[in-house]
From TrEMBL:
Signal peptide: none
Gene3D superfamilies referenced in this protein's UniProt entry, alphabetically: 3.30.70.120
Protein name, as recorded: P-II family nitrogen regulator
Pfam families in the cross-refs: P-II (PF00543)
């Protein structure tokens, strides 16, 4: 299991989320962050920090990790310098709190009741990578 963290401009968020949906990747955490790609403190003191979106996605395998990276890449890289950064960290354990399911089972969305609630959903696949 992997956690993909990506920092990018807020203007790209809708396109990234749509692309993730089209790649059957569900389950995201979104935060508003400030930071700097380069030096954040110079002779004059702290430099002005950039406001960005942070997206965290936990996926169960390599295939979904690469799909998620490409979804972010292709919707953010056209902004030039400062387009953002993303990185991957290993995830040791995941638990769905409601059921106690762990790891891949906790990342799979296969509740029939939930599918019924979202009958007009784009997805028909039983398994999604991180939902
Ligand atoms: N090494 C890092 N560690 C943690 N966060 C980082 C790191 N580098 C960049 N960030 C975060 O990503 C945001 C976007 O970084 P940015 O795109 O400017 O990276 P960069 O390496 O400077 O690339 P570029 O040369 O395109 O500007 C930063 O504002 C910061 O929040
Ligand atoms: Mg930069």
């Amino acid at each position: 299991m992997y956690q993909l963290t990506a920092i990018f401009n807020r203007s790209c968020l809708s396109d990234v989320l749509l692309e993730l949906k089209e790649r059957a990747i569900e389950g995201v955490t979104i935060s508003e962050v400030i930071g700097k790609g380069g030096v954040a403190f110079d002779d004059a003191g702290p430099v002005e920090l950039d406001e960005n979106i942070r997206l965290d996605i936990v996926v169960s395998n390599e295939l979904f990790k690469e799909a998620a990276k490409e979804a972010i890449r292709c919707n953010t890289r056209d902004l030039g310098k400062g387009s953002g950064k993303m990185w991957v960290t290993p995830v040791l354990e995941v638990e769905r709190i409601r059921t106690g399911e762990t790891n891949e089972a906790a990342l799979r969305h296969n509740d029939s009741d939930e599918r019924a609630l979202h009958f007009d959903s784009y997805y028909t696949a039983i398994d999604t990578p991180a939902s």
